[in-house]
Every structure is written in structure tokens, then in C-alpha cells.
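Weekly structure sync, notes
Attendees: PL (lead), two postdocs, one rotation student
Agenda item 3: pending single-chain targets
PL asked that the sequence for the first pending target be pasted directly into the notes so everyone works from the same version. It is reproduced below exactly as submitted, 231 residues in total.
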Amino acid sequence: MQPFLEKLAEEYMSLHPRVKINVQGGGSTAGIIAVQSGACHIGMSSRPLKPEETGLNAIQIAYDAIAIIVHPKNPVAGLSLGQIRDIFAGRIRNWSDLGGPDALIVVVTREEGSGTRGAFSQMVMAQQDISEQALVQDSNGAVREIVVRDKNALGYISFGLLDPRVKALSIDGTAPTHENIMAGRYQLKRPFLILLRPDAQCVLADSFNGYVLSPRGQASLAQEGLIPVQP
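Predicted structure, written out during the meeting:
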């Protein structure tokens, strides 16, 4: 979520020149812990809060989806959810088993604590572990760059970070498009949340949250490929 938060912070600071917002990455779990501990005023998460992650106000600001990506030259156009699970679990290792070339699949995943990985594990892996042979990256952008450079790579990133350098696969015959995500036809849909501590009494945090949910903030998220919660 860091690129989206950075863009919103820049826009907010342009409207309020005396305000300074420092944005740091680290994954959804890090953001949740930082707000709980009081280390920061605003956190963000790309996954729902767990039952034990208490004491926070979670405000949904947008919907996102997880896109499964390959190199544009890869002939495979779609996979089933079961095939994706088997790839990341290490049971399918060669593209030839999926209608592609005779080449080993380079599996790319996010780090533990990442909201994207947490959502992927919940929606795709069904309690199964991701193979230890997978390459672990610390951002969606890093996953995308590996797929850009390696025609045998397969990874997953935020739908909002898709660009023409990678190809998003259909899942069970459904492509990751805005229309399919909004209609609920595309399965890998997740919330984007702003997190606040109700006892923090931070006027700036409340003001920033108001901006994100304003027509201008929601339009900005839509420009980045996310699906706003406000019409």
C-alpha cells in the first residue's frame, strides 16, 4: 500500500503546506503494530484485522484485488485457483504442465507480515504453506520487477500496480478487471484500510482520513487503479 499512501500524503501536504507526513513501508502487520503501540498516528492495512488485533478503528478507503502476473511473452493466459495453489506450494514446477514452455517456474512471493501475502495465503493457499523455494520480496514493486525481467517468473501484486510490462492471468476463466472485481466475479478481492487509535485524539489523522474519503481523495485512488468505496 505504500505507493498509494505516498501519493495521498503528497496531495494532502500540497493542500496543507505546514503539514509534514512521513510514510514508511514494512507491510500491513508492521503498520498495525505501529499504530497499536503509538509509534505512529495513522496505519494502513491491505488485509482485514485479525481477532487479536484490537484497539483500532479500521476505516475502509478502497477495494483492491490481487493479480497473478507473468511476463508478457509467457503464452499462458489463465490458471485455475487450484493450479496457482499447487505452483506456490511447490507441487507444479514446470510451465509445460500448464501449457507453457519446458521451463522451471520461478515463483515470487511477498515476505511474512505483508498484507498482500496474508490475503494471498488466505484466499489462495487454503492453510497450505508457500514453498521455501519461492523468491521472497519486500514490496509489490520488487515482485513486479522480477517478473518484468524473467520470462519464467510468476508472482502476485496489487491490482492497482499492474502496468503493461507484466501480464495479469485470468483465474478460473475470469480476468482481473474493474468490472469483474466490482461485480464480485473475480475472486481475489481485498479491502484497503486506514487504521487509527480511538484514544489518540490526533486532529491531523482525522483530517487526513477525511481527505482520503473525500471525492478528491477517492478520485485519486481510482486513478491509481483501486476501486473507491465512495461513489
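Discussion points:
- The longest helix spans residues 2-15.
- The chain has a mean pLDDT of 93.
Action: rotation student to compare against the earlier draft before next sync.
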